[in-house]
Amino acid sequence: MAEEAPPGGEPAAAPAEGAEGAAAPAKDAASDFRRAFNFPLLRHSDMNEEMRTEVMELCVTAAEKHASNVEYIARMIKETVDKKFGPAWQVVVGEGFSFEVTHEEKNILH
Asked: What is the 3-state secondary structure (H, E, C) of the chain?
């Protein structure tokens, strides 16, 4: 699957390999990754437009507020959507995992 460019820009290029040392490219790669994905990346949603926009804005706000703690991000998102849209929301924040879920129609954002 091809990656899409961020709105108004092009995807970040892979870091150039140089003779500066082995640690520098790894640090540059992580930095480039953060720059390339500093916007919400939506893969799938069947929510209505208003709900989707609200939840995406909430996700961005939570990620900015608790950048170093994914548990706080998930808790903030869950508590807010439970209050606003009713109970029983499941929120997963992190990287390097997969999932399989059953969900109500018009209530998934991935």
From this structure: CCCCCCCCCCCCCCCCCCCCCCHHHHHHHHHHHHHHCCCCCCCCECCCHHHHHHHHHHHHHHHHHCCCCHHHHHHHHHHHHHHHHCCCCCCCCCCCCCCCCCCCCCCCEC
